[in-house]
Amino acid sequence: MSTLEATSTSAGLFISFEGIDGAGKSTHIESLAQAFKAVGRQVLTTREPGGTDLAEKIRHMVLNDPMDAMTEALLVFAARRDHIQHCIEPALAQGKVVLCDRFTDATFAYQGGGRGFDWAVLTQLETWVQTRAPDMTLWFDLSPQIAAERLAGARVPDKFESQPVAFFEKVVAGYAQRELAEPARMVRVDAFGHRDEVWARVMLAVQSRGYL
Ligand code: TYD
Q1: Which domain holds residue 174?
Q2: 47: domain CATH number?
Q3: Residue 69 has what pLDDT?
Q4: For residue 86, how far is its CA from the centre of ligand 1 (angstroms)?
Q5: How far does residue 7's CA lie from ligand 1's centre (Å)?
Q6: Among 26, 178, 197, 208, which is 20 to 30 Å from 116 by CA?
Q7: Could you give the C-alpha distances from 16 to 38, 114, 167, in angstroms and in order?
Q8: Count of domains for the chain
Q9: 147 lines ligand 1 (CB under 6 A)
Q10: Looking at the DSSP assignment, which residues form a beta bridge with residue 103?
Q11: For position 13, what pLDDT does the model report?
């Protein structure tokens, strides 16, 4: 089989990226997309909430309008349903590498941890909506204090970014709880240090699974 055939028929790969605002995941998503393209893979880079026209409209509401935690949770799962159906599943079926900036762990971390919404209800929603779990999740773990320093003055903060450090401590606790429950899927990446150091940790995690 030629290389071209091998890559076009290979199975899809689904990787999600998590972490508190300011942890620095976005630059690494772009670098990882380039790394997969360099070995001939087709890559879809997407994000949550968002990734489809409908889900991007929901994103705008979730990030800007005041609402209670249950409304937030229902909206992000509605966006996720549309995103999985119309974007993620078709791309994986075509053998693409799907790199998703946030996914279900963010709902547990932000709505569950940060906002204190019922974990069991989120688990039920996850069961209904998440027809495809990520093969691997890279969790960029950084202390909320340092993340806040990185974000300070960088841009106009959205509803979540303007939350105090105490909120992000609860978000981190939410991520940690997810990692504890699913250590095989969720890989903690120490996001402290220079960008190059963190990138080396990302590559190590991806290569050690044979994905690159
Ligand atoms: P983010 O991913 O940081 O995008 P950007 O870098 O463009 O600001 O912003 C998404 C925000 O949405 C982030 O603060 C976390 C929040 N969020 C939730 O609260 N629940 C969710 O389920 C998801 C996916 C995101």
Answers
A1: 3-208
A2: 3.40.50.300
A3: 98
A4: 20
A5: 32
A6: 26
A7: 20, 20, 22
A8: 1
A9: no
A10: none
A11: 98
Q: Is 20 close to ligand 1, i.e. is its CB under 6 Å away?
A: no
Whether 155 has a pLDDT exceeding 70, the answer reads: yes
Q: Which residue has the tokens 């880079």?
A: 45
> Helix, strand, or coil here: 97?
strand
Q: Is the CB of 131 under 6 A from ligand 1?
A: no
Exposure string (b/e) for 28-49, b if CB count within 10 Å is 16 or more?
A: bbeebbebbeeeebbbbbbbbb
Beta-bridge partners for 131: none
Q: Which amino acid is it at 77?
A: F
Between CA 118 and CA 72 the distance in angstroms is: 12
8-state DSSP, 39: T
Q: What is the pLDDT of residue 9?
A: 46
How many other CB atoms sit within 10 Å of the CB of residue 71?
A: 15
Q: pLDDT band at 10, cuts 50/70/90?
A: low
| Average pLDDT over every residue of 130-159 | 93
For residues 27-32, give the mean pLDDT.
97
Å from CA of 1 to ligand 1 middle? 42
Ligand 1 atom showing the smallest separation from residue 77 Cα: 22
